């Protein structure tokens, strides 16, 4: 019970200190202030319009360098102002409205080709278009409405930029803290492999899902640190501190990723003596320690290093030494004991890296960053806003183009249905379609489910609040809480965001004297109608199934693992270790591993008939994760023993064969005829190496890597997509 209570407490603390909650506070304040101030002068309606403009600007205010955020907010303000103006004039004719809906829905959905930040500008534009439908005004009122929208956008932009000036490192600290906590979760899942009677497939599934999150957090931190000139180029203590911690966290993640031996084999050999349980306990305690580092980063305090960890690691080492001396019997294989020793050394290295990161908190003196720490250009993505990219995607083979057509047609259908039945708030159907429809079917399905559940539960909660709470001040306080919850969870958990948003809307309409029961019924109806249209359209109208683009993802994964393996093995055959090329390819491995895991998750959410070779793809994903982990083990050894590597030329034949196996796997996936090279096989080791600890480790890793490469080769033959 205590552990569950502690876990809940940690989750609450993590959320309150996160960038999600910070975003919620900023958006709530930015949207609420105009309405509150103007309502004091009897101008509540104008205040709500200004607040709408602020909300539109906030949509583009996603985490990233302040220059990118500023430009996105200002462009959003300009675009939504133009869209609100054109929508206002189009309201005079239902045909003009239909044309506006069709063209804007297509145009702004196509912005996905430029990435999520630019796509958010399109989302804001569609939002202001949807809310402006059916609101017939005079020309003067249309111009004033547009001016209020623009004013709201400029107000929010000024607020966000000002907060960044006051706290320039706050967002980077929060994002880095989130990244560290996700790495600690990854280690916690990895610790599960040492548990008895472990479901390996389920744990690998969790591990791969977590790896996707780690990659997202790493990319977010990388953009914030290396695309912000004041952090890397200025000699501030805080900026340098964040960069150094991030670099060490990346190296720590690689240390955690490394795998020395088959978990199944270890359990067969050592479950009876309970030593694997000790590994699990130590890893769990280290993950707790790392989690504390994440909290400390977000709270801007110093973490405390656990005093029990060195003792537990020492006890673990003594147990392995006793096992090696034969105190538990002589039946344990030497290779298994050596594997335990290697894992224990890895555990020690993880502990020392965590300790090193803790040390940075105590000594934040401005220090000179090394060349490898500031070579940011190799590690960050650069957005291209070339119109040629837009034109290239104007074809049915483009997933974004099909999505844009789908959104445009479905939005028009939703508008026709709403006009035909004279719904009180017809634009709610369009709003539901707009926020639910995503390029991939699985994402649309998930959004649809979350919005429906959140709306129904939220509507019941909202009606219960209005039935039981009569005091205006209490209702306003609840409205603030719901508003804060809705905007805090909108990027973290959509169903919770909708659950808060629905009571917020019901209470707001009650304050405006527009009734609540009718609104309750209509919101649920509109959500069901809009969601149903979106779901059916995603399934039957130019659908996008994951298996259609999965082959590219699989080939890219093997390609990067092959490059990673080749890069590392050359260090064992004479090439000098160089950090920059190595870290570039390591980053690509993390990115493509996350892409593969994401693709598998999306495919798993699709209809059974579309889940082609799902078991084989899962096996392929796990094997490639193992491949990366084994290569990481070799890389870690080379980093820690530079200039002290024994002669390994006798392993070159096995290394070359492993590369051939991976290359043949790519050819099988690329080649439609699946022409299989029957000569491919596992080569045996022809040379006997001196059996010292270090040489055994290297030889075993090369042999294990060849086995994994062969398994990838065999499973690639079975994948039919």
From TrEMBL:
Cellular compartments annotated: Cell membrane
Keyword annotations from UniProtKB, A to Z: Cell membrane, Membrane, Transmembrane, Transmembrane helix
Domain of life of the native organism: Bacteria
TM stretches of this protein: 37-60, 118-136, 142-163, 404-421, 456-487, 493-512
Membrane topology: Multi-pass membrane protein
Keyword Membrane: yes
One Pfam assignment: FUSC-like
Chain ranges of the Integral membrane bound transporter domain: 414-536
Residue ranges occupied by any Integral membrane protein YccS N-terminal domain in the UniProt entry: 74-350
Family indicated by similarity: Belongs to the YccS/YhfK family.
Protein name: FUSC family membrane protein
Organism lineage string: Bacteria, Pseudomonadati, Bacteroidota, Cytophagia, Cytophagales
């Amino acid at each position: 019970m205590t552990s569950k209570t502690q876990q809940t407490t940690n989750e609450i603390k993590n959320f309150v200190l996160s960038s999600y909650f910070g975003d919620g506070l900023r958006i709530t304040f930015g949207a609420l202030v105009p309405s509150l101030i103007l309502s004091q002068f009897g101008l509540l309606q104008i205040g709500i319009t200004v607040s709408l403009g602020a909300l539109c600007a906030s949509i583009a205010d996603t985490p990233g360098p302040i220059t990118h955020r500023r430009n996105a907010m200002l462009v959003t303000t300009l675009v939504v102002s133009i869209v609100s103006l054109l929508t206002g004039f189009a309201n005079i004719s239902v045909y003009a409205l239909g044309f506006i809906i069709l063209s804007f829905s297509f145009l702004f959905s196509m912005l996905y080709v430029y990435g999520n930040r630019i796509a958010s500008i399109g989302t804001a534009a569609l939002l202001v278009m949807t809310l402006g439908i059916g609101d017939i005004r005079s020309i003067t009122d249309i111009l004033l409405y547009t001016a209020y929208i623009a004013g709201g956008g400029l107000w929010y932009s000024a607020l966000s930029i000002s907060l960044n000036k006051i706290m320039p490192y706050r967002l980077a600290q929060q994002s880095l803290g989130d990244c560290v906590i996700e790495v600690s979760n990854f280690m916690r899942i990895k610790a599960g492999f040492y548990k008895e009677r472990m479901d390996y497939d389920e744990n690998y599934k969790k591990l791969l899902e977590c790896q996707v999150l780690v990659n997202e957090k790493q990319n977010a931190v990388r953009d914030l640190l290396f695309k912000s000139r004041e952090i890397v180029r200025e000699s501030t203590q805080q900026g340098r501190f964040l960069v150094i911690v991030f670099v060490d966290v990346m190296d720590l993640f690689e240390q955690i990723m490394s795998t020395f031996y088959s978990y199944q084999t270890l359990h067969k050999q050592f479950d009876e003596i309970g030593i694997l349980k000790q590994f699990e306990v130590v890893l769990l305690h280290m993950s707790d320690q790392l989690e504390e580092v994440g909290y400390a980063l977000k709270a801007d305090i110093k973490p405390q290093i656990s005093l029990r960890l060195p003792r537990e690691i020492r006890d673990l080492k003594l147990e392995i030494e006793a096992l090696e001396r034969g105190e538990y019997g002589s039946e344990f294989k030497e290779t298994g004991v050596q594997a335990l020793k290697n894992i224990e050394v890895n555990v020690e290295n993880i502990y020392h890296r965590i300790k090193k990161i803790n040390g940075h908190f105590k000594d934040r003196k401005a220090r000179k960053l090394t060349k490898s720490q500031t070579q940011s250009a190799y590690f960050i993505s650069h957005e291209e806003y070339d119109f040629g990219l837009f034109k290239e995607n104007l074809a049915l083979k483009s997933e974004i183009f099909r999505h844009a057509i789908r959104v445009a047609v479905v939005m028009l259908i939703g508008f026709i249905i709403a006009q035909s039945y004279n719904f009180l708030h017809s634009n709610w159907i369009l709003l539901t379609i707009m926020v639910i429809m995503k390029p991939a079917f699985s994402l649309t399905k998930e959004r649809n489910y979350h919005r429906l559940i959140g709306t129904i539960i939220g509507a019941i909660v909202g009606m219960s609040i209005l039935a039981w709470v009569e005091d205006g001040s209490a209702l306003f306080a609840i409205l603030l809480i719901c508003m804060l919850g809705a905007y805090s969870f909108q990027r973290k958990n959509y169903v919770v965001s909708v659950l808060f948003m629905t009571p917020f809307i019901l209470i707001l309409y009650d304050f405006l004297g527009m009734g609540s029961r009718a609104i309750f019924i209509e919101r649920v109806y509109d959500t069901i109608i809009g969601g149903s249209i979106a779901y059916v359209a995603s399934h039957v109208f130019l659908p996008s199934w994951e298996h259609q683009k999965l082959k590219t993802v699989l080939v890219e994964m093997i390609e990067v693992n092959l490059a990673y393996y080749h890069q590392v093995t050359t260090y064992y055959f004479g090439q000098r270790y160089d950090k920059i090329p190595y870290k570039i390819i390591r980053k690509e491995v993390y990115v493509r591993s996350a892409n593969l895991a994401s693709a598998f998750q999306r495919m798993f959410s699709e209809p059974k008939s579309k889940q082609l070779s799902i078991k084989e793809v899962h096996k392929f994903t796990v094997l490639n994760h193992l491949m990366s982990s084994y290569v990481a083990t070799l890389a870690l050894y080379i980093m820690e023993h530079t200039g002290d590597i024994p002669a390994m030329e006798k392993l070159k034949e096995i290394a070359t064969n492993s590369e051939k196996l991976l290359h043949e796997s790519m050819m099988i996936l690329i080649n439609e005829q699946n022409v299989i090279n029957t000569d491919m096989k596992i080569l045996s080791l022809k040379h006997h190496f001196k059996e010292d600890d270090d040489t055994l480790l290297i030889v075993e890793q090369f042999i294990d890597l060849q086995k994994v490469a062969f398994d990838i080769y065999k499973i690639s033959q079975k994948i039919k997509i």
